[in-house]
Amino acid sequence: MARSEAAASRVVRAAKARAVAPPLQAEAWSAWLLAASVSVFLTANPLYLATACLVGLVVYASLPAQRRRGAYGFIVKIGLLFAVLSVPFNVLTGSSGSTTLVELPRLTFPNWLGGVTFGGDATLEALTYATSRALRLMALLLFATAFNVGVDHYRLLRLVPRALRQLGVIVTVAVLLLPQAFAEARAVAEAQRLRGRRLRGVWDASAFVIPVLAGALERSIQRAESLDARGFGAGPIETGRTSRLPAVASIALLAGGVSAYAYDRQYALPAFIAVAASAAVAMVALKTRGRRVEATRYSREPLTMPSTLVAGCALLSVLLLAAMRVLGVADIDYFPYPTASLPQFSPAVVLAILLLLAPAFRATAASREASEGRDD
Amino acid sequence: MIEISGLSFTYPHASRPVLNGLSLSIADGEAVLVVGPSGGGKSTFLRCLNGLVPHFHGGRFAGRVVVDGLDTLSRQPRDLARSVGMVFQDPESQFVADVVEDELAFGMENLEMPRLTMRKRVEETLDVLGIAHLRRRRLDTLSGGELQRVAIGAVLTMQPKTLLLDEPTSQLDPQAAEEVLTTVQRLNSDLGLTVVIAEHRLERVVQYVDRVLYVPGDGTVESYPVREAMALLPTAPPVARLGRALGWQPLPLSLREGKRFVGEQRRDGGFAEEAAVAVDGDGLRVDGLWASYGNGDALADVSLEVAAGEIVALMGRNGAGKTTLLRSLVGLIAPRKGSLQVLDRDAAKSSTEELCRRVAFVPQDPASVLFRDSVEAEVADTLRGTGRPGTVDEAMAEWRLESLRRAHPRDLSAGERQRAALAAMLAGQPQVILLDEPTRGMDYETKELLVANLRRRCREGCAVLLASHDVELVAGCAQRVVLLAEGRVVASGGVRDVLTESVTFSTQVNKLFGGRYLTVEDVLEEKQP
Predict the structure, then answer these.
(1) B96, B136, B352 member nearest A157 (Cβ)
(2) What is the C-alpha to C-alpha distance for residues B437 and B362, in angstroms, rounded to an integer?
(3) What are the structural domains, with CATH classification, of chain B?
(4) Are B447 and B415 in contact (CB under 8 A)?
(5) What residue spans of A94-199 are helical by DSSP H?
(6) CB contact under 8 A, B136 and A154
């Protein structure tokens, strides 16, 4: 008797916990997205980038099917098309490199049309380089899609630092635009079918990019309006020069770091320090401003164990990759020019990238819970 | 206290003002109903009272609006949030949190209240609205009525003195709407909150309000005592229209008041069911259908039939399976079991594109089907895609859209958008028409237009299946009713049989006279000879 009661109360408790606990917290997803995006910029090796694509795909596929329905696959397809198209385009427009694959007729546009040269020698180097870039683009898109399917956008909205909330509308729209666009794209596809037309190729679909974005924008703005009416971002507004100083400093440091790196790779270390300093200044500034706005929280939800683990894995992955890049492990900074060679492939790097798979484990475990949602 | 003096407002890029030289005041504790055709400026008027106009929307603003001593021009909406709370039309577009309790606290967090105050106010609000049992529920598991009460709670925790509600029940079924409006009425009478509410379901609110503001759409706002308004304005609940026609004085606003005039005489009114006009052609037939959409809205062993020339209404609570049934009929949902015969085709085996050559389906949200850059392009798109016979001009005339042909759908008002969506989806001559809640938030004129249109198409041999909560609409146009509950058919039969036997789905006139009376016209026709 007592045992069955205990069992029953355990079931009830578990059900309650499931009803309230979100699958993976927005903090963890944000850390993962940030880490994953940085990691694909730490390598140019097509093999590692392909691994990253695979990771993005697995994480995406591990999310509950109900939330992935329709438009997300669609967006991935559009991305794939652009990525694939970018390869011949890059090969045709860049003709340096020493290993010529095919010689093509050369076509140079007049200066008033941009003076671009098409054709000429299609080189293996250009092909490899273009492939790397396409893979990186694809990986980023997959990460962003997985993040958007997985993350709880409202929790994400509440994570926005208090000081930034004074930008109310802009922040709301920025956070909500993409998920709204997915919903909107799904509606377009359905409405077209009701009008006797299935959107077959990606070309059909691309005709709707503008209306989808316009519709998504409109809906995000509606939501922003209701948040505004409920005091989102209320509080004293500071416009003194002192409050702008950290922002200016942070942007200047960031711009300096990035341009130094872009100018010459040998400035990598100072550039890295500048970017890190920029981030630090921004964080301190947001913290202190946030304190002046005085946040109060109704209920604090501490980070759950799975969220901490996912964020930890993501961070570890980036740190490992950065370290390997500095040490120059196994072609991590592969560059095909002037003469392409077969890129090396190191299991250590691959393992570091695979750490980014962490959300997939948690997402699969939680997918049952998400399917309880209502859909009318 | 709300003071408006010389208020004029023009939206950016608009040529004429929505509100023009408006002066009026609303006293503390007053309950004010805002009525008028959709697109006339009701929403704009409400948004002027909490500063969303002009701060959020921009545009040209003149005059002064002072709410609770605060000038809306010099304060941001978020600062006015302490004095004025606003509840929007669509319950789902106003939430932030996942869980009810957090949602209620969101506004207070923004206002930086101490945690103890927040806890206390959340408790109080949960009790006031009778939603204490929902406190830990996830928002995505709540019904429409519950959601809208949570939305009201979410602004009440900020303890505003004024509550603005912009058509809060337009997305709800009758019971849920009742819950919400009763709650609003209690807040007004028990807590003394000033309430300004825009609402189409007059029969549920007129008896509670003190004053009616009529926004005709020419920039003016006329203020009437409620009884006078119901005697004058084109829109009035059935009981008031009946009173108007029969010269009852003072004009009854509620069933209770109407009963006095009817007295004890419960007549039978031997109305026969209106038989469907016999027309050649196929309709649709559903046999033993099992299907589910999402998780809540499932069908279990549903069978029904709609003949050509017939309008059948599908009624039932939110989540009863109406949408699932309609979507299955156009192949957007694959059934698990059962047969779906639409015209001469098996809907389970045909693609949506193929079915829609002769079947028209209008989904719930009209904005969700409009994507082209003009109204005429929307219609042309359907005609081209489906290959149905017909021209754009016909459709424009049919839905009174001639002057809006080239307008961008996003620039239209909600009511115009609904007409554009109907024109776009019903263009050509579909042989089967499926409508999902077509009258949500629809004004009186558009509703009349829709009823006339459906009746005409029906005479021409069209089969119509209409999912709706709108009892008066169903009473006015359907021949048969199928009532769904929890995915099963619980009643099916002639419109008079089903509606007069029901408590929640009966019309005001039926509640008044009993018997087989359904509409104002029933009573009036009987009086005349």
Answers:
(1) B96
(2) 9
(3) 2-234 (3.40.50.300), 284-527 (3.40.50.300)
(4) no
(5) 124-150, 153-159, 168-194
(6) no
**Residue B138 at interface with chain A, using a CB cutoff of 8 Å:** yes
Torsion of CA B306, B311, B315, B320, to 10 degrees: 40
Q: Which of A14-18, A202-206, A308-312 has the highest mean pLDDT?
A: A308-312
> Which residues from A are below 8 Å from B369, CB to CB?
187, 191, 194
On chain A, the residues whose CB falls within 8 A of the CB of B358 are none
- CA A69, A72, A73 angle in degrees (round to 5)? 90
Whether the pLDDT of residue B224 is over 80: the answer is yes
What residue in A sits closest to B386 (Cα-Cα)? Answer: A196
Angle B9-B13-B16 from CA coordinates, rounded to 5°: 50
pLDDT value at position A95? 61
Q: Does the pLDDT at position A180 exceed 90?
A: no
For B136-148, the pLDDT digits (tens) are 888 877 777 788 8
Cβ within 8 Å of residue B286, ≥6 positions away: B302, B303, B304, B305, B325, B329, B338, B339, B340, B341
Tell me whether strands B211-214 and B194-198 are parallel, antiparallel or unpaired. unpaired
Residue B264 has a pLDDT of: 58
A154 to B98: CB separation less than 8 angstroms, yes or no: yes
Q: Cβ of B318 under 8 Å from any chain A Cβ?
A: yes
Strand arrangement, sheet containing B19-26: B19-26, B2-10, B60-67, B70-71
Measured distance CA(A131)–CA(A88) in Å, rounded: 9
Inter-chain touch A376–B323, beta carbons under 8 Å: yes
ipTM value: 0.80
Sequence-distant (6+) residues with CB within 8 A of B156 are B85, B125, B128, B129, B163, B187
pLDDT (mean) for A201-216 = 76
CB-CB neighbors (< 8 A) of B59 in chain A: none
pLDDT over 60 at A97, yes or no: yes
**H or E stretch covering B486:** none
Residue ranges of E strands in B240-348? 284-293, 297-306, 311-315, 337-342, 345-346
CB contact B352 to A (< 8 Å) = yes
Mean pLDDT of B60-86: 90
Searching chain B, which residue's CA lies closest to the CA of residue A224?
B94
B295-345 pLDDT, tens digit per residue, is 556 899 999 999 999 999 999 887 788 888 999 999 988 898 899 999 988
- Chain A segment 51-80 residues within 8 A of B by beta carbon are 66
Q: What is the mean pLDDT of residues B206-213?
A: 92
For residue B425, what are the contacts with CB-CB under 8 A and spacing of at least 6? A194, A195, B360, B361, B362, B369, B382
Confidence band of A367 (pLDDT split at 50, 70, 90): very low
Residue A166 has pLDDT above 70, yes or no: no
Question: Which chain A residues are closer than 8 Å to B368 by Cβ?
Answer: 187, 190-191
Within 8 A of A17 by CB-CB distance, chain B residues are none
**Which tokens go with B470?**
């709108």
Give the pLDDT of residue B136. 87
Residue B228 near residue B222 (C-beta atoms within 8 A): no
B377 near A CB under 8 A: no
Does residue A300 sit at the B interface (CB-CB below 8 Å)? no
In this prediction, residue B154 carries a pLDDT of: 92
